[in-house]
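agent> Task received from the user: take the single chain below, predict its 3D structure, and emit structure tokens. No templates, no multimer pairing.
agent> Plan: (1) validate residues, (2) run structure prediction, (3) serialize to tokens, (4) report one or two observations.
agent> Step 1 OK, no nonstandard residues flagged.
tool_call: predict_structure(input=
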Amino acid sequence: MTRSEAPDGSAPDTVRVLVVDDHQMFASSLAHALGSEPDLLVVGQATSLGEAERLIGTTAPDVVLLDHRLPDGDGVGAISDLHAIRPAAKIVVLTATTSDRILVAAMEAGAAGFIAKTQRLDDVIDGVRAAAQGESVVSAKLLSRLLPRLHRQGGASAELTDREREILDLLARGLSNADIGQQLTISVHTVRNHVANLSAKLGAHSKLEVLAIAVRRGLVDGA
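)
tool_result: status=success, residues=223
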């Protein structure tokens, strides 16, 4: 088991990254920039969903940078298929649009976050590291805008502990694991364990999907 697959959500010593984008020059430039970081290793580049599905199964990435629009389909729509191949992968959507509809769909599909293609390279690098550590790659301001737009469906209520509900409320405020630990006077390691338990109970692949499912089931107030 790699550290990225550990129950506490800690990051691996070297983060394995798969870049999926149909613009070859953009993908190559991004891969080169990421690969120049000492803790990041680009294990592959894909220009289509079909290629991404093949590579995610053979290269075992910790983080997948996934373009939203690909020649053979919708990147957001393929997130569940990619997770079926490698559940441990954190998928960060690269998007040229900040449409709430697209971002909400990405959250509900299990994305770890999203990065606009207009953002700085440093933002992408920081986002990859954050995703590998189990953090949500989204600002608190954007999260507060998206939560009310999530689809509420009801359904069976999960049996959560009081501490898990407390952490869930803090996640909805956009707090990082470190911020939650500081507020509750517990270690980051303990916070990660609670988030891992929440993910397991709700069947989620990321903190964002934890929130999406929680709002959908009425476990947390998305307003």
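agent> Step 4: summary for the user.
Confidence is low (pLDDT under 50) at residues 1-8.
agent> Done.
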